[in-house]
Amino acid sequence: MDQAASIVKEHHDAIINAIKSVVQRDWRILIVDDVSKKIIESSVKEDDILNVNIANIQEIEEPRDENSGMDAIYILSPRPHIVECLILDLAKGRYRNSTVLWTGILGRELRARLASAPQKIDSRPLLVDFFPRESHLVSFKDPYSFPILYNPSCEAVAMPHLDALAQKIAAVCITLGEYPKIRFFAPRNSEYRASALCGRLAALVQDELDAYKQFKGDFPPQTTRPQGYLLIADRSMDLMAPLVHEFTYQAMAHDLLPIKEGDKVTFHMTVNEGTPEAEEKDMELSDKDKVWVENRHRHMKDTIEKLMSDFQNFIKQNPNFTNQNQDTTSLNAIRDMLAGLPQFQEMKEAYSLHLTMAQESMNIFQRRKLPDVASVEQTLATGLDEDYKKPKDILEQMVRLLDDEAITWVERLRLIAIYVLYRDGVIIDDIDRLLNHAALQPAEKVKITNLQHLGARPTRKLKEERKPHPPLFPRTQVKNPADEDNFLSRFEPAVKHMLEDLFSNCLDPAIFPFTRPPTDGGAADAAMTTGGSLRSAAPRWASANRRQVENRQRVIVFMAGGATYSEARICYEESEKRNRDIYLVTSHMLTPQLYLRQLEDLSMDRRRLGLPMDRPQPQVPEHFYAKPKPPPQPVQQPPAAAPPGAGSVHPPTQAMGAMTMNSGTASPHAGGSGARPPVPPAGKTEKPVKEKKKRNLFGLKKS
Asked: What ranges does the record list as Basic residues composition bias (predicted)?
């Protein structure tokens, strides 16, 4: 995929260009809060900010000295206590002039509060309230979205949450410069509470985008690409995808390995293992890692072959640094060789990371007998065996696995959940029997029965006859796959079928209606099938000098309730196949373990969930209300006897008492326009200006 098309870059450029539009040729101080800081850090480096005439970066919640001689730019999140901090800041006249950029939309109450402030506030929308995780993957980092949307006890907060989701989705569209056609998932089964979720959310997003267009007349910007699409679906569209084992590198690693999800995605490992330089380190998994980007969507077997092939090519190109007699045909041998190559530290760390992750994943794959587990899973998830026929004795096959001590409790629970979905429900006693046979605690049953809140029918009465739901995406029989790797990957997430039907103009309008029926239906259909701009019919020479990526149509897929790494992979693969840019946007990324834990939350009382809105809300820090300390009084010294001939000259005690450490002028700054302004005093010995860029992003010392 052409990495030039990247939501990370679009997010970065939106922030930097907004700062530039305010700063222009002046030096300013940038003030952020704890939330806006993380949003900025997700795509922008510290140097990028300091290089656009930002002299210093401070946090609004922390104590700061006044600097009435400098202008300030605030990038803040729209929250009540942050608005109060801003008003108090301006009332104190802490800075000369101030401009405020809001990462999200200010609610009516917050707008009224700002309007009531005595100071005139230059306030502008920035609308970057999301976290670009990969070039085509966006997360809101909000796992609480799942229980809020699907737990019946959270109904009172569901609508405000949908409002917040709509604003974030609109922010993604606005950052991309897209005013898309919106379609949403409207399930045939409307019996469960959340069945109207996507329709309500789609209407709210449409309202947000319409309001922004009215506010900003030149939106969307002119472009040669066709109008994009926004597809809004939710977890109920595909209950199998978070349960089924996927054996592509990224999905498998997140399923089996202890990868940490924080401000960064990291894997803890020992670097230079077996040498005196050995150290434990958190290795980041991001788009900055070319080896990761190149291999993350490959099947694990192909990933290992590629890693070994690349390393063997390196040895051929650098014979002076290796022993030609060493074994290079096994992962362990290559890892040992890497430890002895100090000359290639960056390359060594990258390959050590991925060889370690691949090796550990494959060890678990064999130890837990995942090929046997996956074979049964694929039959249950697709409803067909390896020969694409109706399966026989599938229950017996599953029960044998539930008896196997090598199969962990998580795999056993996943198998039972998949079986219940495959059967479209079983009697409650059968769930108890399966759990007992698998030696699982009876409390695990709630994770299966709670699938009802996502539209499944996990239980049924004895002798109850039930008409099966028609398949969401009917498919003809597929030819028998050629190898074992493929028959362990027969299941395809519903997102793949949804995108295929969209691009072939056969996405059912009854199940995926528009929020606003298109007025140019024929033209829109032509754009979908041609794979690019309607101008593509022009002579080839007419667009020879135009970057193809600039004309690629964009499709934004929002998955409410969390998305899987298999669904992320599908969006990348379909982007490449269809010559589009498909972005997956979601509240949070799901692993099978997290999915099972969150299913348990769906029957829990809201008071036990610890939702962010049910916790004590942040307050304005007390130091905002503290009276400023009076300046120290000059110490009066008794007059000393004057030496002969000295006259009546008095020591300049008063003048010296009024002097400060910052009385001198600032040093010139090579990268700015003119001399660098004085940095606000921090109450400690001031470092030279040239060291400012060496500090951690936003990690400036507190005053």
From this structure: 690-703
Within a domain: 548: yes
Q: How far apart are CA 505 and CA 502, in angstroms?
A: 5
On the 0-12 / 13-18 / 19+ scale of CB atoms within 10 A, 93 is exposed
Chain length of the chain: 703
Decide which of 105, 127, 149 is a domain's last residue.
Answer: 127
- Helix orientation angle between 108-115 and 80-91, rounded to the nearest 10 degrees: 10
Q: Where are the alpha helices (DSSP H) in 216-330?
A: 249-256, 290-295, 300-317
Q: 548 Cβ partners below 8 Å, 6+ apart?
A: 2, 532, 579
Q: Is 352 in the same domain as 381?
A: no
Cite the DSSP H helix spans in 445-493: 445-449, 484-487
Q: Crossing angle for the helix pair 394-403 and 370-382, nearest 10 degrees?
A: 150
Say if 83 falls within a structural domain.
Answer: yes
Contact assessment for residue 117 and residue 90, using Cβ atoms and an 8 Å cutoff:
yes
663 vs 65, which has greater pLDDT?
65
The domain containing residue 596 runs over which residues?
A: 134-238+493-610
Q: What's the pLDDT tens digit per position in 75-129?
A: 999 999 999 999 999 999 999 999 999 999 999 999 999 999 998 999 999 999 9
Same domain (yes/no): 461, 521: no
Tell me, yes or no, whether 391 and 478 share the same domain. Answer: yes
- Please report the DSSP string for 116-176 in residue order: TSSS--EEEE----SEEEETTEEE---TTHHHHHH-GGGHHHHHHHHHHHHHHHHHHHHHH
Same domain, 475 and 498: no
Q: Give the C-alpha separation, 225 to 208, whole Å.
A: 22
Among candidate residues 111, 127, 143, the one where a domain is terminated: 127
Note whether 227 and 285 are same-domain residues. no
DSSP secondary structure of 301-318: HHHHHHHHHHHHHHHHH-
**3-class SS at 668?**
strand
Number of domains in the chain: 4
Q: Which of 312, 343, 348 is nearest to 330 (CA)?
A: 312
Place of tokens 């799901």: 590
C-alpha 619 chain-centroid distance: 27
Q: Are residues 113 and 144 in the same domain?
A: no
